[in-house]
Amino acid sequence: MHRRSLATLTAALVVLVASVAGATAAVAGGGIGETIARNLAGAGAEPPQPQVPAFVTTVPRPGPPVAPRGQVRAAASAGHLEGVALTGDDGPVTGVLAPDGRSWTATDPLEFGSTYRWSGTWVLDDGTRRPLAEDAFSTVDPDTEIEGRLNIRDGAEVGIGAPVALSFPADLSDEAKQAVSKTLSVETSTPVEGAWKWMPDDADGSRVHYRPKEYWPAGTQVRVRAALRGLDLGDAGWATADVDRSFTIGTSRIVKADTRSHQIAVVENGREVARYDASYGLESDPNRVTRSGVHVVMAKSEKVLMTNEAYGYVDQPQYWAVRISNNGEFIHANPASTYAQGNRNVSHGCINLSTADAKEFFAMVAFGDPVEVTGSSEPLTPRDGLYYDWTVPWEEWTAGP
């Protein structure tokens, strides 16, 4: 009896499963079998997802005044944009619409102390047209502004030792220096290994220099850029202008100046093209020694007034003067030391030449030409002025502050 009951129950289950299977496979039907089939068929299906509404975003958003530098953009999640414009107090801002029409990005920098408003049309995929929200935002109006100045003019031709110096007329905080560093770039037509380095702050403010590992290759085209405009430099103020300068590295010209030879030589492209009798600084007086180390030609003047009250002269005119450091070292004409030129060192630190030789040398050299002084007892150091870059070993130069 138990065996029969179990067999009967098993048969009933088989019939039920067969009925459900038949209901699942059926295209049409009714009754409980169809209901069970629908429930079984939908048991593993994903639930319907809620539809995400389309939207448009604009950056910056309304709120506190923002920096003029930063992303300025309108973007749609669906559809496309038409006639987008961003207009400030001084007129429209130039921008570009993406190829798919879904975003517009400003290509002009914003102005300080201005209010901007969006306008245009958002066209949805179904053809619905909606005006772009007139979200207004404003830019900061700084109390203090600051400008970075580059030492090389646009289009200049400079010597192979020319350092690139970007200076600011205020001391920058470490955070401000880091912000500036992120904006710096140097592009060269010839591969050049080089690096930026922040120099010690002084009374004139802060400055960051760039130099190659070795002298610049002659003929190299160089472009220096610093995207500074609108950068918040903390207590120093807001940067007001970008830097974008291009220049060319000229002839490979090196001035060889050995204090022991009592001469200087000019070497162009590896060949000596000039040699002059000279008198260097008096070696017995540490204050008058011409410093050993790589100087660079900084500036030239047909006449300078030299003063050293400790040695008894004030505003003494000297001619055909080529400055090679900020400590008072020049290569210039000095008829008073003609007797010593070529055989003795008697100057107050300058390199003295005859008037004829000084005039010829003056015409030959250019900003950035290296002047390699050797043989003296005192080295060129940071105390001696602006461009001592080449006296710093490369490992130290690239080691950071």
What does this structure look like?
The protein is α+β, with helices and mostly antiparallel strands and 401 residues long. The chain is built from five helices and 28 strands. The strands form seven sheets. Strands 3, 4, 7, 8 and 9 form a five-stranded antiparallel sheet that branches. It has a five-stranded mixed sheet with strand order 22-21-20-28-23, with no helix packed on it. The protein is elongated and about 100 Å long.
List keywords for this structure.
single chain; 401 residues
Q: What's this entry about, in short?
A:
This protein is α+β, with helices and mostly antiparallel strands and 401 residues long. Helices cover 14% and strands 35% of the residues.
Quote the beta fraction. Answer: 25-35%
Number of strands: 28
Percent helix among the residues? 10-25%
**Straight-line N-to-C gap:** 99 Å
User: What is the alpha-carbon Rg in Å?
Assistant: 38 Å
* SS-based class: alpha+beta
Pathway: Cell wall biogenesis; peptidoglycan biosynthesis
Domain L,D-TPase catalytic: 253-374
Active site: 332, 350
Pfam families: Big_10 (PF17964), YkuD (PF03734)
